Design the sequence.
DNA sequence: CGCTAACTTGATAAGCTTCAAGTTCCGTGG
DNA sequence: CCACGGAACTTGAAGCTTATCAAGTTAGCG
């Protein structure tokens, strides 16, 4: 991971090395770019960007409805490719949730990787649709946490107990836009899981999983795994 | 189109030429197959099928949750490819909604078509997620009708007035599973559109669009078009 | 030390689901 | 030929879940 400031400091400040970054791409195939939290990487409807690989950080893909309503289509963690689109324009916007590092991918050289990423994205999109259309609120929340733990988790401790922990780069509002819920509902259910001893967070952005089995059970059916998508 | 029986007869009977069809694929790359309504073309979790082209009819892709809840991921009309999956197994099941004709696609020979279909599927899946997560019930219903009209519509008449008409191969239950609603809600909103003079149906499976502009307006924002996906 | 942004929590209300009939349209069998 | 039965659809009433509205809290930052 990048050398990030302590968890609670990550929120919205812009250290000097990020302030100078222009929000939108410079000449194509600039090999690597650092992106500040909240910055747009590309924009829905604009001329299609190149295919990108997230080296580090967290990026969300979004679509917006009348400027007010927003849907997060996917949350992307380190290693994944994004920016795959059909026609001449992007289907969605891409936005960094934290300090992120991306690099352009050469579709010729990495044809297999691109194909793979495309199929993986489709699979995740399908799981996401099932979540949005047919899962209960608790299932949605649990599945989201399980998915983020897989993408961003690392071993950690709560007191002396081992518990997988991850940095929740998304705000409650982002989670709502991902799961088709409101801020308030997200907050209520997260705290319900916390009271139930299934997850823990003192800082609202640092989440630990205390009972992965129960979490998976709550995330509900569909496939073997309760997450949005594993394989 | 195939030579179908009159609209209202299409429902569930099995004419002789379909009764003999085994529901699941015979040896790979059998060039063409006829499928009866309700028949499974391939099954979620089973060994991956070949890539298929729908020559005629209507196919839905579904995922199921605990056997009770079902999500329809996409509704596929003539010309489109489906059966694109990631690992060794299918992500979803494919089911015919009416008498349908499919053929296997050779991914070598049709590489560009397959790539295109893949990107198109992803784009539709993303639009679908935005619909499920952030659109109102009326917007969902209107967008679904507009999408089906594009895929299945042809010029028709209501009385002496020209009105695009399409055969609704989906039941109310299917529509609910597509849009994340119940049968009853789908029925109520369809009838509301009918009372409002925006659509018409006397047979519940034959739908005419009386006011395409109002329908598009009701289908709500997102892109220029109100449908799930055009381009 | 107050300001703002994110988060939490409570009360109310709206919208959808659930439950329950009832209708229509076919196909079947007496 | 008509009565019966099933499947899809429609419609109404009641109940729940979640959205909305409204404070109130916490934590950085100027």
Sequence:
């Amino acid at each position: 991971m990048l050398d990030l400031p302590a968890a609670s400091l990550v929120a919205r400040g812009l250290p000097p090395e990020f302030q100078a970054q222009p929000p939108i791409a410079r000449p194509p195939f600039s090999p690597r770019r650092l992106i500040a939290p909240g910055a747009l990487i590309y924009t829905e409807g604009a001329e299609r960007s190149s295919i990108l690989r997230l080296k580090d950080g967290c990026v969300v893909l979004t679509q917006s409805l009348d400027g007010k309503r927003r849907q997060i289509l996917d949350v992307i963690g380190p290693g994944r490719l994004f920016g795959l689109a059909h026609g001449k324009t992007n289907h969605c916007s891409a936005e960094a949730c934290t300090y992120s590092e991306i690099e352009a991918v050469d579709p010729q050289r990495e044809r297999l990787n691109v194909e793979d990423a495309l199929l993986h994205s489709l699979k995740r999109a399908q799981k996401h649709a099932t979540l949005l259309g047919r899962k209960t609120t608790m299932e949605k929340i649990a599945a989201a946490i399980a998915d983020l733990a897989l993408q961003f988790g690392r071993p950690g401790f709560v007191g002396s107990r081992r518990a997988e922990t991850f940095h929740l780069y998304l705000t409650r509002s982002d989670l709502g836009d991902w799961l088709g819920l409101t801020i308030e509902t997200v907050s209520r259910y997260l705290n319900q899981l916390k009271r139930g001893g299934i997850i823990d967070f003192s800082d609202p952005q640092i989440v630990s999983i205390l009972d992965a089995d129960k979490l998976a059970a709550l995330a509900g059916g569909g496939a073997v795994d309760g997450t949005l998508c594993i394989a």
Remarks:
- The first strand of chain B starts at residue 32 and ends at 35.
- The domain at 135-219 of chain B is CATH 1.10.10.10 (Arc Repressor Mutant, subunit A).
- Chain B has two domains: 7-129, 135-219.
- Confidence is low (pLDDT under 50) at residues 1-26 of chain B.
